[in-house]
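Thought: the user asked what TetR family transcriptional regulator looks like in 3D. I have the sequence; next I should run the structure tool and report back without guessing.
Action: structure_tool
Action Input:
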Amino acid sequence: MDPKNLRSSDVLLLPGARTGRDPARSIKPGPRRQPAGVVAATQRERLLDGLVRTVAERGYQHATVSDICRAAGVTRPVFYELFNGKEDAFLAAHRFGTGVVVRRMAAAFAAESDWCAGIREALGAMLQLLAGTPSFATMAVIEIEAVGPAGRLERDQLLTRFRVFFAEVPQLPCGVRVQEMVDAVVGGVYSAIYRRIASGRTDQLPELLPVLGMFCLAPFLGPAEADRRLGSRIGEDPSCTRSDPATTQQ
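Observation:
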């Protein structure tokens, strides 16, 4: 699916994109109240939004459950009906939001006919999403470390998901293992994004696209070839066309 053709109803927002107290999601009391499942789902969404914004503002260590509930307009008893505690809610917000990011990247990647253009479009989709929701970017990229071992495990599991975008890279010389190189590249991209967010320049993330595109292609194609493909209309270069998955180097 071409992300340019996504209907508004198909687009899932990142947690933190709306305020927890968004009037459009208020729960009306009385006999016409929504079904219990719908109410619980709405309260959960509001709590995730409230958590992301509170953690981005105060930091994970200083954000309290009461702060999160206040930002969401949801009571503490309801919070504990839905989550085991602050860490559980944080990880739920992280998983949901990063899932949205990865799916949007996958859609952008699949819309291109070649790997080079696909990588660039996937990176662009990620950078635009994070820049558009700075509270989620701060919560997911910066504050994840403050969660402790569970947060680091969650981050490591996320980074391995990005291997799928490099399934078609060519064989490397000198016995260098492709997966190890891919993991190094993914880690470098994450580090560059971290530094930009940590320095308060989240809105400038899309400016990283040229350098990150080069960083992702150069280890596998060489700097000169990566520059040529990024500088030309990549989709018109037959040497960058995706190979048959059955013969792709894993």
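Thought: the tool returned a structure. Summarizing for the user.
Final Answer: Structure for TetR family transcriptional regulator predicted. Residues 1-10, 233-239, 241-250 have pLDDT under 50 and may be disordered. Residues 86-110 form the longest helix (25 residues).
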